What we know:
Layout: H1 2-21, H2 27-48, H3 54-83, H4 88-118, H5 129-161
Amino acid sequence: MLMLNLTIGFFGVFVILSFQFRSYIEPFAVMLAISMGVVGAFWGHLALGLELSIPSLVGIATLAGIVVNDNILLVTFIKNRLQANIPVSEAVQMAAVDRFRAILLTSLTTIAGLLPLLTETSTQAQLLIPIVASLVFGLASATLFSILMVPAFFKILDDWRN
């Protein structure tokens, strides 16, 4: 049942992004960033010695929403540069530079706000720690990889079209 709901959720995100970007390929740039966040969440659980649980998966679902927001803007900035007839290499570089500070600050403030809860040892916090671990480590990894991989995706897409 969980896999069915996950599939429906990813398909829903893809459909909405397809309408927004008016493309069936560009939403994959955003979906790629979600997968990088999931990888970070798994590594975070491994580093902290936590088992994957339902609260962990709730954290990953929340993480997907946060990561999508950052990357929608990055893709929009890239598309705006491309519509201004700027070459792809320059467009992705300019968009990444323009959005870097905003993406980094958004991620760092979220991570800084969640760190006290991640280090909490009380019994009440034990339910929330897997959620927070998914968010903190997933967001750190998605931030790093989205700044690098989303522009690279557009460059690869341009090479593939040629």
